[in-house]
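Good day; I would like, with your permission, to put a structural problem before you. A protein sequence and the structure tokens that stand for its backbone fold form the material at issue. I would ask you to consider whether the tokens describe a fold that such a sequence might reasonably adopt. I set the record out below, with my sincere thanks for your time.
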Amino acid sequence: MSSDLEVSALAINVTIPQALRWTDTRRGEAFTLTTLNVRLLPDGHLAVKAYGRPVGGGRGAYVSFSVPDRPELAALVAEAASHAGGLWAAHRGLG
């Protein structure tokens, strides 16, 4: 494998369990956050944003929200990243 191989992004989407979901407001509209997008940064740290649907229904805009600093959410992100790492390591190639 070439030593100059560059991987620009590793990202996973994680469904937020019902008990951990929260509501936040953007542009006057309330959203229930249901999904986390977790990215592995080049320095090995993780970055995370939350996405969801308007409380009032409909599709709404694809708007990102910050994830609250809560231990149970940090644990969910860490567990998901470790699980995804294992899945990547065990890949079976194309096809």
In short: DSSP finds one helix and four strands in the chain. The first helix runs from residue 71 to 89.
